[in-house]
Design goal:
alpha/beta; Helicase, Ruva Protein, domain 3; 2 domains; two-stranded antiparallel ribbon; 11 helices; 9 strands; binds S-adenosylmethionine
Amino acid sequence: MSLETLPPLREVIATHGLAARKSLGQNFLLDLNLTGKIARQAGDLSGHDVLEIGPGPGGLTRALLAEGARKVVAIEADPRCLPALAEIGEAAPERLTVLSGDALKLDPLAHLQSPIKVVANLPYNVGTELLVRWLTPSTWPPFWDSLTLMFQKEVAERIVAQPGSKAYGRLAVLSQFRSDPHICFELSPQAFSPPPKVTSAVVHIKALSAPRFNAEPKLLSEVVARAFNQRRKMLRASLKGIVPEVQPVLESVGIDPQRRAETVSLEEFCRLSEAIREARA
Ligand code: SAM
């Protein structure tokens, strides 16, 4: 069997008894035109290995292979999906490796070769945690060239948010520090089976070759987490204790200690993080 002659996804789900489980964030995409559109947001896949998290019955997996990925490595937590994925593997010999288990615990890198793109309709329960891990390695560039990911629309908006907006926070700073994110398109709940409660959106995040501004990533992450943890408070209060005297450090980089985190730009957060590093040294 070839990729084109695999049975429709509804039939695959019925044959393998893949009734969706809420606990695993299972909202499946059954329209292969749509999975093809998502795969194409990742750009030219030929010559790239692709890491997919949560292939489920394999709608997006098929599209990634059909769009020319050199190899797809897919991590799936639900063992019920493995026979359906094995059929896709037979239709694309040597091009699909399925790792059975929790994407938060498995390290797929031994199975992947550069250049690597990550493409996934992420399970909502682990999506943000995986994104933060991919954005915060200690060395840059990361293992991936780009991330093309489906999120709840509200999370997508937090990734691309600019200062001054309600959505602006830690995810925006971490996503924009060393990468370039944009929202590709939105999907209504009816695109999924079963339909989730909220609208979704596909986000494309391209890794930059170097950070936009100088900062130590772990410390930047700590500063931003603290600042937004109490986003209604002034910085002099939310950052109290990050160094013995935070007010003069804020002033030394030209940030009024009475400002709130949501008004502080990425560049200012990087400057502040560097000043905190120096104050701690
Ligand atoms: N990619 C499929 C699609 O687009 O139709 C399924 C997407 S569904 C939103 C999320 C998938 O992630 C499910 O197949 C679920 O079993 C799987 N999953 C949930 N938690 C996981 C985890 N911790 N590690 C790996 N896969 C997980």
